[in-house]
């Protein structure tokens, strides 16, 4: 409150202040050795102000009265200096203030209360289980890496609009990579634990992952990939598992529908978007078939982007980015929503932020960051096996892998973890060296089957980079399995 008073006294028309304590722990191992251990804590305050339509921001890790006042005044001085480069004065969409609110991630076990020795011991035990498969009897060639990553963010936000909220956010990501090697053939294949996705939960997520039990299966799958048939190039029907499809959603739907990217504000670093300009695509661009609906939210249980309020004090809403196959809305903040004012009013909608503002710490200024963006399940109660049974000639892909995509999020290529050949509605064997190429609208319009609610799963990205200076955000993407007709598949293992 001292920061807000000092900012207003110095000439700010609006101000917000965030005090946060961030704890990060990362434990990494290889075979039976500890590779690294990070256990960091950072604590401070960031003050953002608006002066005559220009932003200013300053931060400090010294929480004394004099220093907080100085930082608030420094933010105002910066905003006044920024007016000289102003092209369009910042206008904030209205917000309903929350005078007193609290929110906490659904974490049962605080990972920072668990001894590091216990966490290291679990990883080494899982590695040992994998090595029994990869290097039986101590012979053969094989490698295994594993890690745990945790975040706890305790933050208090106050704004001159009358909001005062306190939130505690947890995130957890256990992971393992098993690598099998065939020295004679000069081949190596890896299996990442992509069926254990990062979640907005506590240490219980690691325990539920059953790393020691699953390690043997992942190692066996890496070994099996060595014997797999190299794929023949051509067009195939693709059956995409949620552990794979989440990344395609992230890159080809979630990123191009960020409004700042579509308006060109991220062009220097993150690129632009083919989903632009707004007046040409809103309500007009056919993104996919009529049964395709993509929802943005920050509320799914255990999701990485779940919060009670964003970093502007907005209670996030659920909204459809794609409705019945047609592009319907962008991701917005209080600053961005007024850019779409004419469109919203023409649809009889309020000009309000969707609550998509976030900063990675007290030392960073908040800006538009991706919420959870999810492909909603279909009405028919279809599951993975149903899609395979309905496919005569295709490839089923499990788990995400390497990818590349252009600056407009239009042309892309995706790999995966496990690839299975489908013939006559049955899996007949494993393939390797598979990647598929897409043009975003063509790919999504090629979708002709969609799993139901039973087959819906959450995937996610723990570290999604954006901004200059760069910041990291975490988001989940839910989806059922899907089928896409006649997608171009290439062989990544062939030498030219």
Summarize the structure.
The protein is an alpha+beta fold.
Keywords:
globular; 2 domains; ten-stranded mixed β-sheet; single chain; alpha+beta
Textual characterization of the structure:
The protein is of the alpha+beta class. The chain has two domains: 2-227, PmbA/TldD superfamily (PmbA/TldD fold); 234-491, no CATH class. Helix content is 21%, strand content 37%. The chain is built from eleven helices and 25 strands. The protein has helices spanning 2-9, 65-82, 116-134, 204-208, 211-227, 242-254, 259-262, 278-281, 341-346, 384-389, 440-445; strands at residues 14-30, 33-51, 54-60, 101-104, 142-159, 164-182, 187-192, 229-230, 234-240, 294-297, 319-323, 326-327, 357-358, 367-368, 372-375, 393-398, 403-405, 411-414, 418-423, 426-432, 434-439, 447-450, 457-466, 471-479, 482-491. Strands 8, 9, 16, 17, 18, 19, 20, 21, 22 and 25 form a ten-stranded mixed beta sheet that branches. A hairpin with an 8-residue loop joins strand 13 and strand 14 (367-368). Helix 1 packs across helix 2 and helix 3 runs parallel beside helix 5. The longest helix has 19 residues, at 116-134. The model has no long low-confidence stretch (mean pLDDT 96).
**Major pleated sheet:** 10 strands, mixed
Number of helices: 11
Class per helix and strand makeup: alpha+beta
Oligomer: single chain
The proportion of residues forming helix, as a percent range, comes to: 10-25%
Q: What is the mean predicted local confidence, pLDDT?
A: 96
**Looking at the structure, what is the overall shape?**
globular
The count of strands amounts to 25
Q: Round the Cα radius of gyration to an integer and report it.
A: 24 Å
